[in-house]
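LAB NOTEBOOK - FOLDING QUEUE
OPERATOR: T.R.
BATCH SIZE: 2
PURPOSE: Compare the predicted structure-token outputs for two unrelated chains run back to back under identical settings.
PRIORITY: normal
REVIEWER: second-year student, initials M.K.

ITEM 1
FIELD SEQUENCE / FIELD STRUCTURE:
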Amino acid sequence: MVSNVQELRPRPDSEKITINLGYVDLGHIDLLVRDGFYSNRSDFIRTAVRNQLERHREAAEKSTVRKQLDLGISHFTRTQLEAVRDAGETLDIRVLGLATIDTDVTPDLARAAIASLTVLGAFHASAAVKAALADRLK
């Protein structure tokens, strides 16, 4: 028997957030959606966010360089972190975007290989690894 049940997961290129809007602002958004300017509320909000990011692009780019942030997705595997630890080194991770640590990374390995962690965006790791790195997360 073939099952058509699929596990629901967030898209790997997005993170769900919740915002509170006033009723009048929400009504204006609904009016623009109803009149066909946007396909739905999320489309309006994504467009507004992109417009604001573009408006402040130059300042954000300068800050990214100044803070030495890696832009995009940074993924760390158990093998990579073991190599860092075995070399007697540690990582100072700075990411603007998404930082992920594989689920097979133990809290002890994460603490041994990661000296500091700065993530502007989203950080995906097991709850145990997040707890182990909590004092190193900036």
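ITEM 2
FIELD SEQUENCE / FIELD STRUCTURE:
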Amino acid sequence: MEFPNLSDIKRAHTRIGNYIYNTQVMTSSTIDEMVGGQVYFKCENFQKIGAFKMRGAANVIMSYRPEERKNGFATHSSGNHAQAVAKAAAEAGAKAYIVMPHNAPQVKIDAVRGYGAEITMCEPTETARAETCKQVIERTGAIQVHPYHDARIIAGQATAAKEFIEELPDLHYMITPVGGGGLAAGSALTLATVSPTTKMVLAEPEAVNDTYLSFKAGKLQGVKNPKSIADGLLVSVGEMNFEIIKQYVHEVYCVSEEEIISAMRLVWERMKIVIEPSSAVAVAALLKNKEVFAGKKTGIILTGGNVQMNDLPF
């Protein structure tokens, strides 16, 4: 199992440069005071398609030659990765076939359709998603773009942490949410190679705590019937991703649904920016464990801002 290395991450950054934004970093004096330290937010909610997922999807799709793209690309996703594959495929002049669970937020379904993708709905389980995607690939001959279990996805997602640490090279901690683990593993790899003194911390809903359990046990622990407001994190961490996390992550923190909602509301009200619940998981972990981050410089990657506006939790 070969992990991406720094040259893979640098090549990914060059490959996707025309298809992503180098997103801005923001601060909040209110949150600094609450924590007793300096907190910096890398705003991937301002990324194309409204989430960091554009980085990994673009890296995979743009790594294929035009003649290899003729049957299009397929994936399964509850939303942000689906949008990223749809958008990146459109940029590459290829068709996208997206499998989405029927409980995916309507705002994300509409966005995927808006990028010209063909959507197939399925039951909201990992097994159903994977099986339906397999059927779509058999029917179309499309190339699968896995949401997280792919070294190219990890290298693409790693470019967010690369930009972050290049802008702020003296961070003591970096925090990201963890679902499938593409961003978590990519960020951890980036720090290990570029800024080994910066500690990588992951945040996860208590209701979907497979990465936390796996991290503590040292081997993969699945989670059955995950339910959380953080819809982007309702998957188990991938095998390659976990091997990287196990080696390079400092700590994994879990937060309650109430803590996620409270953190989401805080960012909306104080920073005047839209983040989705999955992003708020990292903010909630910061606030819940502020004694760890007091007196330190902490970077948080705000992973996305695709929210169903008529169904807010607050």
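REVIEWER COMMENT (ITEM 2): The first helix runs from residue 6 to 16.
FOLLOW-UP: none requested
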